[in-house]
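Notes on consecutive records. When two proteins share a document, each keeps its own sequence and its own token line. Never mix them. Below: protein one.
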Amino acid sequence: MPLPGSLDAVTEPKTDALECGPRPWPTRGPTRDPRRLLFHWGAALLKEPSAALSQLGKTWPVTARVVGLVIGADSSQAHVAAMLEAMRAADVVVLVVAPAGGKYGNVTAQRTYANASSTEFDALVVIGATPPAPDAVPALDTKSGAGHGPAAQSDPRVVKLLQEAWRHAKAIGSMDDGTAPAAADIPSAGVGIATGNGKDVAQQILDLLSAHRSWDRFDPAPRA
């Protein structure tokens, strides 16, 4: 008699237990194969965009949207304060992005060039020049093209921030002859780009935010 747990106690499985693999879906009846139905439904959705899910041509409240206010060490304090007031009056959350942490006049920086991420913001506004900060290391950010051409005039991390916002179809504002957008190869007349004085830029940004993204910035891929 084999001892419990010994190899002698192991019996060969029955032949029907060796059958493996998923059982086939039933092909009879009105439903047919559910996998075929799912395939055809998916193909139909790809051909016909859902009006219920589309964001094209619609607007929403801008309450609690997040705008990154990018400033330099010499940015106009009056213009920064005016932009903050205009955005906050519309219940927009503003995070000041500065070369380093601390106070810039009466304004406190919530983010720095080193730790700001484009994914945090729904839009960006650049006020004044943003030259490379002392801790900028252009060699670590080759994507920005830092050290070459117009990009050398702006901090490479700000250039990268703006380039990502541009590719994500987010609104971008620039005032006081900010050099950062030009350094990021962003056209001043591009779709979703706000320029002008402080009041005009603030209103343009709010209008662009209400549409969520600047969908017309890029041509859609042709449908098959």
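Protein two starts on the next line and is unrelated to protein one.
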Amino acid sequence: MNKIYILAHKHVFEDGHKEGKLIGAFFSKQIALKTLEKYKNLEGFRDNLEGFYIQEMILDKLAEKELNKVIKKEY
């Protein structure tokens, strides 16, 4: 079973506007976490650390159940 790990960031502004950024797709969770460590200190990301998430996806499979499976990182 081939998996990838999607690293993304979401931000909800005070006016309710939502913005999401896809940072990357990785073959290992460890590489996704290492990339998250780099991004969490960058302007535009460091003020909203809870907006990061990593989602595990199985290749060649519909994402219906995987959409709710998000790997959270504690800070």
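For the record: The chain has one domain: 3-71.
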